[in-house]
Amino acid sequence: MKAVAERGTASTAVRPDTTALEQPIDRASLTAYRSRLPASIRPSLAAVFWPTGVLLVAALVLLAFWASLLGDDLLSPSDPGEAFAAWFLLLPYLGFVGVSTVLLVRSLVRRTGRRQYRLHRFAAANGMTYAPVQPGPQLPGMIFTRSGTERAYDVVARGGRHPVSIANHHSTTGEGKGRERHRWGYVAVRLPASLPHIVLDAKGNNALGRRNLPIEFARSQRLRLEGDFDRYFELSCPEGYESDALYLFTPDVMAAFIDTVAELDVEIVDDHLFLYSRKDLSTLDPATWVWLFSVVDALTERVSRWERWRDERLGSTHVTSSAEGAPVIRRPPPGVAKQGRRMRRRVEWFWIVGGLLVFLIGVYSMIEDAVT
């Protein structure tokens, strides 16, 4: 069953076939499919039981040990206060058992391959490809360029004039106590031409004054746009490219972004358009896929005209004559000048000044000690 086309008021929207995400799974087909899954997705039972199973056994041993010590107070207390105190002492160990059990069950469920099998069949039914895991995706977006280890999971992709990939991105940065794990859902749309670096920071997903995006850019690069757009997004572009951003974000394009992705962050970099979410976007939820298909169709229809944009810094548009004497319009070549390819990041002056003050105080103390 192929994707079903539904006519909207303004354009033809393609509704995906989501049957594979909900219908019963054939056990034989599932068994054959999961035998091909990589070890990073379906580890051996020994690999699953070694960390989580040991934790559960240790938790049960500790619980049994303390329960034996508190036996009378637990089973036949002479004072209700003693019973409360005894059970209160056991709470951490009961919690330890509960957490260990949840981790073990979750690990066992993940290795069944059901999620991957459903997404594989969903992608096939809609003329797309599926990869359960993709180490280090080579993409220019900000979530892919930080140092550390990274993987994309549940990558659903399609080709065509505007190739699209939808996936969940996991990365780890830092070491030791500074080690951090980051999870994102993303949509990557290949554009017909390279464009200036532009970021739309969605105001709807920022909380307590903290931005959702992993990188902050210099405030001098922010651009205010007309209408209601600034209520939903904060647009940043390289200095000197303000008129180019206005050319790209015409009123109908701004309306399309507000109507479809007001809760997602957007980045345009090189020849890609990215949508970012802190939640998984490649999921087993049919409604999410229906929404994503409509978003991609709406945006690609609006931004198709962006391929006509040219960076005047690479040359001017002028009229020349052909060999036959006919006038010919010469335009700059496709591409972006160096200053427009990446925005400047925000400098955290607080930490720089603070570090400098600490250094100067240390030097002053050393000089004072040497003099005295």
From TrEMBL:
The record's keywords, sorted A to Z, are: Membrane, Transmembrane, Transmembrane helix
Entry keyword annotation includes Membrane: yes
Transmembrane ranges, per UniProt, are 44-67, 87-109, 349-367
Organism of derivation: Agromyces hippuratus
Q: Does the keyword Membrane apply?
A: yes
Superkingdom per UniProt: Bacteria
> Would you tell me the protein name for this molecule?
DUF3137 domain-containing protein
